[in-house]
Design brief:
The chain is mainly alpha-helical. It has 29 helices and five strands. It starts with a helix and ends in an 11-residue tail after the last helix.
Length: 625
């Protein structure tokens, strides 16, 4: 950095190549394990992808040669008057772009206008390269990525089990001659307290009862090894508390009218009624606000929303209603109170003749429209899909990090190659605005479409430009613009970006989401989850399913929650109750293990590996083939 600063001070150009290497710090930190795994999986899938890509490029080159011979000598012109299909390299680029459909049907029109027979050439090309080869790309990426990811997960699971076996060897106690060693409950409790100090004693006792299902006071090797997977199952602890009104005025709170009101609020019809109110309110928000009827209706809706919150606070214990993980209760309360305050302030300023600002009120209206998500949550099919997306969210974020790393590398290279080649002018009357500050762009599609702000002059505009290239619409215009202001070989930068990001990484992302979605959407719970649920039901600590439907709120809950239901909680209910958190996984590793659970031997402890001798288990590694 000091050297670069000195060169800048001396007005000397310096290539900052080290910035491209900065993402290596992110990849190599301890928390970047998932990112490293994604890179390894891509690296191992690349050889097979490369062979398909070579065949694909061979097809593009052959069709380009045929296009040159068919159309190059016919004197056809493009829409801007330039010769049509007379340069072989230009044809290769145009047909490659056609695979992405970004220049369709523009690239075909001069030949099609000449004769409809030439349209057959382009139709055959699109069928072979766009639909067949791109589908083959997805299939090859899906198959190879899944294969190497499964192998890595197998080694990871074997490594975890091997370490658990070693821990069992340290904690084991002899249980008699000719009988396998066991781990006592006391030693087991010490291990769990050390590994998961955050879980409660009741939760720990529940896990022990699952491991020691015969109440022997000790467990064997298989049950101990399963402890790691058992701790990865998200169990929510629910605490039952009486309503404050129940303690302060029990006669009134337990009276007949009060009990009837509580039953009405807890009924499904109450939720449906407010869902309909939200829908009607959304329609009114979209209408003309200058109409007095529409403007005054906002007060009615605010009153109804406020009444809903007050009724729920009357029925449900307040600490349970505003617990950490009751997302919708917090969301509704904040939106309603903010809208009420903003509406009151706006009305007061308007009546006093002062300045009325609509910006804050408009934002509140938009947030209130977001309450429509609750209506989506009420539909079972929608709820299943959204829950699945929430559960695989952490795994999807891994690919988000991967794309950001690749974006950063291309952004740094792009800024070194194209910085200040294209400029954006704020002044609409500036004559240089019409050719983006570069005379070479005068009369080009890049300047005509006003793409001047799509440049590599700073990090923000560079990342936005890379997102536009990922979408691929008009990416040939963007690449051609920068090729005009530099050199035609600049298109290589944009083609490499398309190959790596769109063809490889996006296809891998699609393949992973398909696999994870299939697992989450269709498969049943694992054996350990089933055993845990059976034990919760056996101990009569299960929450009634009709009270806790699997909705978006449950999908966002973690660790513990409050189960304060006012009059709905019977006096003989336990203080603590449990439920499984809707097949959610605490870590991405747990989700990946679930995806390949059918291919993993539950008793494969890797005890015969060489790693046992030196006390270390080798990290998963693969050859280049």
């Amino acid at each position: 950095m000091i050297i670069y600063g000195a060169l800048r001070a001396a007005d000397c150009y310096a290539l900052r190549w080290s910035r491209v290497l900065r993402p290596l710090l992110l990849v190599n930190v301890t928390e970047g394990r998932q990112l490293r795994r994604a890179f390894r999986s891509i690296r191992n899938a690349l050889p097979q992808i490369f062979y398909v890509f070579l065949l694909f490029m061979f097809s593009v080159l052959i069709f380009s040669l045929m296009a040159l011979k068919l159309l190059g000598k016919r004197g056809l012109k493009t829409i801007d008057g330039s010769p049509y299909f007379t340069n072989y390299l230009e044809i290769v680029f145009d047909l490659y772009v056609l695979v992405t459909t970004a220049n369709s049907p523009d690239i075909m029109m001069p030949a099609y206008n000449s004769s409809f027979i030439f349209a057959i050439f382009f139709i055959v090309y699109i069928l072979i390269n766009t639909y067949i080869f791109m589908s083959v790309f997805l299939a090859v990426v899906y198959n190879n990525y899944k294969k190497y990811l499964k192998e890595e997960m197998r080694q990871l699971v074997r490594a975890k089990r091997h370490k658990m076996v070693r821990a069992f060897a340290v904690l084991q106690e002899p249980s008699g001659e000719g009988v396998e060693p066991v781990v006592t409950q006391a030693n087991w409790n010490q291990v769990v307290r050390l590994v998961r100090p955050d879980i409660s004693n009741a939760h720990r006792e529940l896990l022990w009862s699952v491991s020691d299902n015969k109440n022997q006071g000790f467990i064997g090797k298989v049950a101990f090894v399963q402890l790691a997977d058992l701790l990865n199952i998200e169990v929510i602890t629910l605490k039952s508390r009486p309503h404050p009104l129940h303690r302060l005025c029990p006669t009134l709170y337990l009276s007949g009218p009060s009990r009837l009101l509580c039953r009405l609020v807890q009924h499904r019809a109450f939720v449906i009624m407010y869902d309909l109110i939200i829908l009607v309110n959304a329609v009114f928000i979209g209408l003309d606000e200058e109409n007095p009827l529409i403007a005054n209706s906002e007060w009615v809706f605010l009153a109804l929303y406020l009444l809903e919150i007050l009724l729920k606070l009357y029925v449900f214990e307040p600490r349970a209603f505003f617990s950490r993980h009751n997302f919708w209760n917090w969301f509704d309360t904040i939106i309603v109170v903010s809208a009420l305050i903003a509406t009151i302030v706006n009305s007061a300023m308007k009546s006093s003749g002062g300045y009325t600002s609509r910006q804050i009120l408009d934002i509140v209206f938009i947030l209130r429209v977001l309450r429509l998500i609750r209506v989506v949550d009420s539909i079972q099919r929608f709820r299943t899909i959204i829950n699945t997306l929430i559960r695989i969210g952490p795994a999807i974020l891994t690919f988000g990090q991967l794309i950001l790393v690749v974006y950063y590398v291309f952004a740094m290279v792009g800024m070194e190659l194209f910085k200040d080649k294209v400029k954006f002018y704020e002044d609409p009357n500036d004559p240089e605005k019409f050719y983006c500050g570069n005379a070479r762009l005068r009369g080009t599609a890049f300047a005509h479409l006003n793409y001047c702000k799509n440049n590599f002059n700073n990090v923000v505009s560079t990342f936005i430009l890379l997102v536009e290239l990922t979408v691929v619409n008009q990416w040939h215009v963007l690449s051609s613009g920068f090729a005009i202001v530099t050199h035609m070989s600049a298109r290589i930068f944009f083609v490499l970006f398309h190959i790596l990001v769109v063809i490889v990484i996006i296809n891998i992302f699609v393949a992973f989401v398909l696999e994870a979605f299939f697992v989450e959407y269709s498969l049943e719970k694992s054996d350990l989850q089933t055993s845990l649920e059976k034990k919760i039901a056996e101990l009569e600590l299960a929450v009634e399913q009709e009270k806790l439907q699997e909705n978006l709120v449950n999908a966002m809950e973690t660790i513990d929650n409050d189960l304060g239901t006012g009059q709905s909680a019977a006096s003989n209910k336990p203080t603590l109750m449990f439920k499984i958190a809707s097949k959610r996984y605490r870590t991405v590793d747990a989700l990946l293990q679930r995806m390949f659970e059918a291919d993993l031997d539950p008793e494969d402890f890797a005890e015969n590996d060489d790693a046992q001798g030196d006390g270390n288990f080798a990290n998963p590694s693969f050859s280049s083939v």
